[in-house]
Structure formats: C-alpha cells, structure tokens
Specification:
One of its GO terms (biological process) is sucrose metabolic process. This protein is an alpha/beta fold and 854 residues long. The protein is built from 31 helices and 29 strands.
Length: 854
C-alpha cells in the first residue's frame, strides 16, 4: 500500500542531506559505516549523537556544526539499521516528522513515505523484506497489512501550522469557523436554530416558537433591551418573565435585569459583527451543561482507605531502573503515579466543576439541580473500602456521587479486582450497563462525558457514540510512551500487558473525542528534544497486526491545554494568617526540629535558624531526591546558608520495591559521605494532605524554598502546591514544571543533570535574599500570581465548561462531529479491537485473588 504523501518537507531534507553527503563524504561514510557495523537494530537519539561524537573528530565536527548533517542528527528520534541501509526518523520541530534512508554501500539518500518507513522498521521483527530488482526494499505482495490512516478524513479540516498553536484548539477553531460560518446574514441561521432548539427535560430555554427568523430575533432582542433599561438592574428575572415570553424569549438569559442585558447585548453584537471572542463569551452564558458523567472504571476508586491498593498508587509494576534515564527522560515515571494522582485529580475536579455549574445555573436564572456522576467499577469484594457501594456521595459536594457498576460476563458479576491491563474484554458490556444505570439515575441524557485513562476513554467513546453526547478525553498517562519500543516489540509485552488492546483503544478514543484536555504542552507535543505522549501516536507499527500511518495530528484543534490546580481549601498562601492551621505547628516543629531520631525522621538539624530547602516526593530514581541530597552535600556554601529537609520513603517498614531499596541505601551513603547529619532532616512519607499544606506554609515562614529535582515530571502537582502556598520553587526544566514556572519571575528552572549549577542557583538566591530583604517576597508573590493566573481549579472548571459549550455548539452548526471518521472508527472497533479484546483471557475470581489483590 504505497503512499506518496510525506510528513513535512522530506524531499527538501533529502536534497540537502544529499548535498552534505557530497561535500563531506568521508565523515558521513565513517559515521554510517559505524551504524551498519553494529548490525541490524535500532539506535536512540543519545546513541546517534554519541556515535557522531565518537567517530567524527572535534575539528571535523566544528566544520559540520552549522550544516545539515548535525541538524538532522540532532533532530533524529531513532535510526533503524538494516545493513546496508540506515533509515532516520527526523523531527525538525514538535509535530513535524520526516523520513530518509541512506544506502551506505552506494552512498545514496532517498526519501521515505510513512508506510515505507514503518515497513522498513518492521524488518527488525520479522525480517521478511525482499530485495527488488531496482535495489529498494519491499515486502511480499501477498503479505497484506492493514494501514490505519485518519488523515484523509481531516484533509479539509482547519488546523494551525505553527507549533506554538498546539494546545490552543478552541481559540483557533473559533477564529476559523467564525469567519467561515458567519460571513453573511444567511449563515447566522444555524445559530438561530441552535437557540430555538435549546431545552432541558422538555422545558424550553432561550427562545420559544414566536421567534422564527433572524429579523424576528433581532427585533425581540431590541424590545427586550429597551424594557431592561426601564427597570432597576437588580430586578429578578421572575418579575419580567411573562413580558419576555410574549417577546419570544424564555429563561436562561440571566437571573437579574443586569445579567440578562449583558447576555442580550453579546448576542446583538454577534448578530451585527461576529467575532470569535464575543462568540465564546456568549456561548459561555448559554445554559448547556446540567448532567456530567466522568468515567474511571479500573482500580479501587474511593475517597478513603485505598492508598497502596493495585492501580490506585503504591504498587509498582514496572521499575524505571530498567530505563536509561538520560535516553528516555520523558518516559521516566512510576506507572502507578498517574492512577494515585488520577483519583485526587477527579475528586478535586468534580468539587470545582459542581461549584462552577451551580454558579452558572444561578446566573442563568434557572432552577435546575445539576448532577455529576463519577462512574467506576463496583467491587463486591471491596476489602475494607467503599468500592462495593453502588452510590456514594462525594465529600464536599451536594450533587456529585460515585456511581459503581460491576464488570460481568455471561457467568455473572466479577467480584474481585482486575488489573487495568486485563479489563478489555469486559468494557463493551460494561458500557451498555453504564448506559442503563445513567438513564435510571439521571432520568436524562448526559450533556458531557469525560473519560479518564485508556479504559475510561474507550467506555466514554462507546457511550458518547450511543447517546450522541459531547465527549472529552483526558489521558493522564499514555502507556505507549512509558515502555520504549512497546509498539514494534508489542508481542513481547502482550501476555502480561495486552498492549495491542490498549494502543488500539487509545487510538479509537483520541480520534472519537470532540475535544482532548491535557495539563501541559509537552503531554501533546513534547519539547524540542523529546516526543510528546500524543505525538508518539502519530505514526507507529504493531508488526503483524496493523500500521498506523496517521494516528493523530497534534495540530488538531481538538487539543486544549487546561491545567489543574491545587485544592485551595488545603493549599493557600502562608500570608493568609486567618486561615492558618496553627494548631498543627507543634507537631510540625517536632517533625522538623526535634532532637530525636525515630522511625518517622532521621538526622537532627544543628542550626535551627537557617532557612530550609524542602522537597517532598516518592523515593525513586526518577524523582531524584538523592540527586538533590548529593548536589546539596557537594556545595559547602549551600550547607552554610540553608538546611535540607526531605520527605521521602518510609523508615518504619522495609520497601518491597527494589528501586526504592536502592535509593534508601544511597540516601544513607550520601548522608555519611558528605557528613550531612546536622544539615539534613530526612522524614518518612507524609499522607495527611491537610498537614502537608501547612507544612509548605511553615517552610515559607522560615523563608525557605521548595525544590523539585525530578529527571522528568509529567505535570508537577507538588510544584503547583508549593507555589500556591507562596513558597519560592526551584523545579526541573524537564516536563510540566518548565511550563508552570517563569524562570526568575515565579520561581526557577533547574536541570537535574547539572546538579552543580542547580546548587549554585540556590546559593545565589539565598545570598541575594541576605542582601535584599524583599527578594524572597518578590519571588513568593510571583509564584502566587502565576498560580492565580493559570493554575487553579476554578480556572480549570470555567475553561472546561466553556470548552464543552463551544465544541457542542460547533458540532451542531458544522461538520465538527466528524461523522466520516466515526464510521471509520466503528469498522476499526468491530473488526480489530473486538477480536483483540476477546483474546484477553477472562479470569475467575479465584484466579484474580491468586494474582494480586491486597
């Protein structure tokens, strides 16, 4: 299935690369011969550059420094070696890919299409390529392989072209579609129809049948505006409701004359001179969201007593010490981190979302009770949790519940926990059962369905497709990026992880979703040096199963960055003295400063008046707490200026995780090697979120700082927490914190691979604080301001509500529901995913119990 379409400017790269080959034949021959000499295999970016530096002398590298070769090698994400060929996957910028192949024997360069590159890559696994008469590689014509390609369905769909536009989908969509759909009077009729058909449970909203045309709408709005100007601004809607009905206007415009006037004025402006900003503001006021369903099927989802249970944090399934951290910084994080955080994320999310829904419904002048349902799996064998409870109210809410629906087969309900890697054969039946439960519980169709993680996103896709509902996808963590080469070598992982199902489910969900929320840009499209989680699904192959020629486009306007925040009831500024939990100070004092060593804290601080460098994280290689201890210990001046307090690990019990054991030993060794007793306090992991919030503020009282030294951090929740509390924060530049912090304004970026420079940055900060008493407050205030501007749950919920309304509107008035794509997905689901899911063994409760419940 040859494909003549190429990603990016491949032909141009081939030509320029060919010119370089002619100009620097000896250097290129030496380098690529080294690649070929190693035999068939794959080289990662760090290996490509290491070979380049090893083979090419420094003087020659200087000549090549500003040329095409070095640019190509630095942009190469992998090299596939099948002697005498070397193929390169080149990524000149986020979201743009190009492919070339070099024949080392003939010193010839050729461009490759995506299918050709993937076909060549498959040689690493099955070795069935044959040499055709003209010297190129091909696969036997009898070996037909399914190629998945969503690009033709999106060819005419608008999308930005600049990398900086990635993750700002709704802004781009509004600009483009506003100009396209509202270019003349007639094109405004979809907006009129949208408002006329707006209702909830049989109750008309916004407009009634008296309004049949745009001129009638404009006339009614002007009469309504005149009436509103004649009455006090605080007049309740109920007092002019009948007058509005006579004009053809129903409830939903606002709760007071002032609010109604503002909404009417927005619509009049929109009808006169459409623009994207006015459209978004108006849609944000239109009542559209009353029932929200949030899906997170796997694991133990509850509000208490689940820490340490499988798939809910605490059970490490894949140790990051199997990875070369320097080679795969974006892939280095505990596989269960996402699931512990996911539970906290959803519970914080629904509290903020309910508050925003209640506020908007009140401001719209409606008397409707919103409902939010978190749908998860019911576990009859709940082992000390509430996971066997069908309906559980979420603490801190009025109208939000956890709705639990069991997994079942023809033989009955599955009583015990099942690993998230083995849920696939249950999900189709589960989706049907959830649909029935939602109908009973809501007595209405949901207005928005939000999926979480791979299984939740697949169920959300099935439900949204069945019910015709707007769908939002939140991945949290895409497994494909966590396991290097888990696509090309998927068969090696299949018995344990069933990645063929999961990667297929992820492709279906991300292409079916109306919009996708991520916490950071890097989650979508990575950085200059690293590939994004979604971006890794652009093109890949599962040899023997199918090739993904075009899986997802990171430029798609469905992508939106909507960052979460910290729970403001727990994490707030140290300066808010009336809210401070001073009753906790004695135990925090004891935790940090007592002269006693016990199972909760090791080492004693000698000078208790020095400011504190504080860090709190899991004790594993990627979180790099030992790296912080090491660069602190190596810098005598830093030890003079500040104490170090770290919260990590558990002194009270022996860890079963080999990586944590090694990090624990390393901590003790570093403390001994750098004579840190007297300078460091090592505290066991603290699970009390309320006390942790006050702990951040206590450190701020001491004019301390927070350091997050991870090799890679997908988002950086502790960074947001510390900044919310006003604690100056130094955090890794690799991952989300690089976006959260504005260097030198709201905190500081550090590179964990350069600990000496990180230590000097801390030294400079503390010395400047000594010279300038206002410097600490300046950075502290900058941190709080940054959080208030971008990282709060209130902002998150406002944005989520607006996105839901905007995408729902555009689905109604345009082809944004992508019907063609969804028909393609139906076929892919029925003919491929379903068979894969059926190949995953069903477990009896006895087998599940033997394999690992707590």
């Amino acid at each position: 299935m040859a494909d003549n379409r190429y990603l990016g400017r491949v032909h141009s790269v081939r030509e320029r690369f060919g010119d370089t080959l002619s100009a620097h034949t000896n250097e290129l021959l030496a380098l690529f011969s080294r690649f070929v000499k190693q035999g068939k295999g794959m080289l990662q970016p760090h290996q490509i550059l290491a070979e380049y530096e090893s083979v090419i002398p420094e003087a020659d590298r200087q000549k090549l420094k500003d040329g095409v070769l070095e640019d190509v090698l630095k942009a190469a994400q992998e090299a596939i070696v099948v002697p005498p060929w070397v193929a390169l996957a080149i990524r000149p910028r986020p979201g743009v890919w190009e492919y070339v192949r070099v024949n080392v024997s003939e010193l010839a360069v050729e461009e490759l299409s995506v299918p050709e590159y993937l076909q060549f890559k498959e040689e690493l696994v099955d070795g069935r390529l044959v040499l055709k008469f003209h010297g190129s590689l091909s696969r036997s014509q009898s070996n037909f392989t399914l190629e998945l390609d969503f690009e033709p369905f999106n060819a005419s769909f608008p999308r930005p072209s600049l990398s900086k536009s990635i993750g700002n989908g709704v802004q781009f969509l509004n600009r483009h579609l506003s100009s396209k759909l509202f270019h003349d009077k007639e094109s405004l009729y979809p907006l009129l129809n949208f408002l006329r058909h707006h209702h909830y449970n049989g109750m008309s909203m916004m407009l009634n049948d008296r309004i049949q045309s745009l001129s009638a709408l404009q006339g009614a709005l002007r009469k309504a505006e005149g009436h509103l100007l004649s009455i006090p601004q605080d007049t309740p809607y109920s007092e002019f409701n009948h007058r509005f009905q006579e004009l053809g206007l129903e409830k939903g415009w606002g709760d007071t004359a002032e609010r109604v006037h503002e909404t009417i004025h927005l619509l009049l402006d929109l009808l006169e001179a459409p623009d994207p900003c006015t459209l978004e503001n108006f849609l944000g006021r239109v009542p559209m969201m009353f029932n929200v369903v949030i899906l997170s099927p796997h694991g133990y989802f509850a509000q208490a007593n689940v820490l340490g249970y499988p798939d809910t944090g605490g059970q490490v399934i894949f140790s990051t010490n199997q990875l070369d951290v320097s080679a795969h910084p974006s892939m280095c994080f505990d596989l269960n981190e996402g699931f512990d955080v996911q539970v906290v994320y959803i519970l914080d999310q629904v509290r903020a979302l309910e508050n925003e829904m209640l506020l908007r419904i009140k401001q719209q002048g409606l008397d409707i009770t919103p409902r939010i349902l978190i749908v998860t799996r019911l576990l009859p064998d709940a082992v000390g949790t509430t996971c066997g409870q069908h309906l559980e109210k979420v603490i801190g809410t009025e109208h939000t519940h956890i709705l639990r629906v069991p997994f079942r087969t023809e033989k009955g309900i599955i009583r015990k926990w099942i690993s998230r890697f083995e849920v696939w054969p249950y999900l189709e039946t589960y989706a049907d059962d959830v649909a029935n439960e939602l109908a009973r519980e809501l007595q209405a169709t949901p207005d928005l369905i939000i999926g979480n993680y791979s299984d939740g996103n697949l169920v959300a896709s099935l439900l949204a497709h069945k019910l015709g509902v707007t769908q939002c996808t939140i991945a949290h963590a895409l497994e494909k990026t966590k396991y290097p080469n888990s696509d090309i070598y998927w068969k090696n992982f299949e018995d344990q992880y069933h990645f063929s199902c999961q990667f297929t489910a992820d492709l279906i969900a991300m292409n079916h979703a109306d919009f996708i929320i991520t916490s950071t840009f890097q989650e979508i499209a990575g950085s200059k040096a690293t590939v994004g989680q979604y971006e890794s699904h652009t093109a890949f192959t599962l040899p023997g199963l199918y090739r993904v020629v075009h899986g997802i486009d990171v430029f798609d306007p469905k992508f939106n960055i909507v960052s979460p925040g910290a729970d403001m009831s727990i994490y707030f500024s140290y300066a808010e003295e009336n809210k401070r939990l001073t009753a906790l100070h004695p135990e925090i004092e004891e935790l940090i400063f007592s002269d006693v060593e016990n199972s909760e804290h090791k080492c004693v601080l000698k000078d208790k008046n020095k400011p504190i460098i504080f860090s709190m994280a899991r004790l594993d290689r990627v979180k790099n707490i030992t790296g912080l201890v090491e660069f602190y210990g190596k810098n005598p001046r830093l030890k003079e200026l500040a104490n170090l307090v770290v919260v990590a690990g558990d002194h009270a019990k022996a860890s079963k995780d080999l990586e944590e054991q090694e990090e624990m030993k390393k901590m003790y060794r570093l403390i001994e090697e750098y004579k840190l007793d007297g300078h460091i306090r090592w505290i066991s992991a603290q699970m009390n979120r309320v006390r942790n919030g006050e702990l951040y503020r206590f450190i701020a009282d001491k004019k301390g700082v927070f350091v997050q030294p991870a090799f890679y951090e997908a988002f950086g929740l502790t960074v947001v927490e510390s900044m919310t509390c006003g604690l100056p924060t130094f955090a890794t530049v690799h991952g989300g914190p690089g976006e959260i912090i504005v260097h030198g304004v709201s905190g500081f970026h550090i590179d964990p691979y350069q600990g000496d420079k990180a230590a000097e940055l801390l030294v400079n900060f503390f010395e400047k604080c000594k010279e300038d008493s206002g410097h600490w407050e300046k950075i502290s205030n900058g941190a709080i301001k940054r959080i208030e501007e971008k990282y709060t749950w209130k902002l998150y919920s406002e944005r989520l509500m607006t996105l839901s309304g905007v995408y729902g509107f555009w689905k109604y008035v345009s082809n944004l529901d992508r019907r063609e794509t969804k028909r393609y997905l139906e076929m892919f689901y029925a003919l491929k995913y379903r068979n894969l899911a059926q190949s995953v063994p069903l477990h009896s409760d006895e087998e599940v119990a033997a394999n690992g419940t707590k």
